[in-house]
Amino acid sequence: MKYKVKYQEKGKIKTLLLTEDEYLEENSLPLNIISIKKTIELSTLFSSKKRVSKRALINILNELNLMLEANILFDDAFEILIDSNKDKTIKDFLLKLKYSFSNHLDLEQSLKEFRVDSFVISLFKIIQNSGEPKRHIKTLYEILKEEDEVKKQIKKVFAYPLILVSSFLFALIGIFNFVVPKFENMFLQNDMKLSFATKSLFLVKNIFENYLLFIIVAFSLILFFIYLIYSKSEKIKFFVHRVIFEKLFIVSKIYKLRMMYRFFYIVNSLLQGRYEFH
User: Fold this and answer.
1) pLDDT digits (tens, 9 = 90+) for 43-84
2) Are β-strands 50-51 and 114-115 bridged in parallel, bridged antiparallel, or unpaired?
């Protein structure tokens, strides 16, 4: 990530490009700044963060919760988890997390190389500031576990419609590749006058025959680049989440209920732990 700094010097507008490290250094910024914008580099579009799956997080939190319930010290519980874990990514994640807790470092900066739900990082920040890891680790574990169960139920509900849609698409491809060509030959051999609907059908058939692979590849590439840009830009993420929250009718309602459930569950846990709100 780089930062484009626009500033005024001697009556002229100038720009300065800074890396993230340079941007965070003291006295690195010029005087008379007009604007500062983040820039996305093409090289960083294809760089991926280390992924920590939700299932792995649930397992970690479950084990951590059990050890804390057994009155094992927080640091000792982390040591046991690190020593017992074979996955290098998870081990690195736990090491960074433990080091951040021990030295009271900014978790968002410490874990920036990992792809983790921002909600989880926010909860870890609360745990770091509250001084009551036992209660809040349990809260985080219960929320993630329940959301995982809900996600499984949603997948089951949508499995049948997805099978129907897939079957319809395969049937459509089969019709345009095998059935429609036979009717086309019959119409051509008998020199029959074609209606507009029939001509449109044959046009779609020709597109399917000649450009289907190109359409699939182009569509897949477009989706891939949209996802890349979305994953790298906070502004686009904010816009997408805002649309989901406000504009998608039933989806928005479900999303709002999910957010409200998270919010009130956490507030209830914090109030029970006598957390000080500032």
Assistant:
1) 454 556 788 888 888 888 899 888 988 888 888 888 888 888
2) parallel
